């Protein structure tokens, strides 16, 4: 089980697990629940550069289409092909098998992200 208190969060409902200079990114359980059943995930190509707070992908559900925002700037080093093949993994395990991409980042940039308590306050305690 992922330690949710060790993660960083964005106001756009992404989570970040920073390990050295690699940030693993996904959407939170709050976002996955609001989206409903995820049926399609479009992620940036490995090697592409993403910019913090800019759209870098798309998540479609039976209810709506949501944009995926890059929580940090950097180069995409890996995408979760399993989620592309089976988007329901986002709903089944948003903090586990449902991760979306890994970005090579400057770890200092993560200082501006939210901690778990701040993210819970943002979502009205539903996080």
TrEMBL record:
Report the source organism.
Answer: Microbacterium radiodurans
Q: Which residue range or ranges hold the Lipoyl-binding domain? A: 22-104
GO BP field? glycine decarboxylation via glycine cleavage system; protein lipoylation
The gene from which this protein is expressed is gcvH
Tagged with keyword Transmembrane: no
Cross-referenced PANTHER family: GLYCINE CLEAVAGE SYSTEM H PROTEIN, GLYCINE CLEAVAGE SYSTEM H PROTEIN-RELATED
The note describing how and how many cofactors are bound reads: Binds 1 lipoyl cofactor covalently.
Which residues get modified to N6-lipoyllysine? 63
Question: Per its record, how is this protein called by name?
Answer: Glycine cleavage system H protein
Question: Which cofactors is this protein said to need?
Answer: (R)-lipoate
Q: Which GO cellular component term is one of those annotated?
A: cytosol
The entry's function note states: The glycine cleavage system catalyzes the degradation of glycine. The H protein shuttles the methylamine group of glycine from the P protein to the T protein.
- A Pfam family that the UniProt record links to this protein: GCV_H
Q: Which family does it belong to?
A: Belongs to the GcvH family.
* Subunit-level organization: The glycine cleavage system is composed of four proteins: P, T, L and H.
UniProt keywords, alphabetically: Lipoyl
């Amino acid at each position: 089980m992922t330690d949710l208190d060790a993660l960083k969060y964005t106001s756009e409902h992404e989570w970040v697990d920073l390990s050295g200079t690699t940030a693993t990114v996904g959407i939170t359980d709050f976002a996955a629940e609001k989206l409903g059943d995820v049926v399609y995930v479009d992620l940036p190509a490995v090697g592409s550069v993403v910019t913090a707070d800019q759209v870098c992908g798309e998540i479609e559900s039976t209810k709506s289409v949501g944009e995926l925002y890059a929580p940090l700037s950097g180069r995409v080093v890996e995408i979760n092909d399993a989620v592309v093949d089976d988007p329901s993994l986002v709903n089944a395990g948003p903090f586990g098998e449902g991760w979306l991409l890994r970005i090579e980042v400057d770890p200092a940039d993560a200082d501006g992200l939210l901690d778990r308590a701040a993210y819970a306050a943002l979502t009205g305690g539903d996080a």
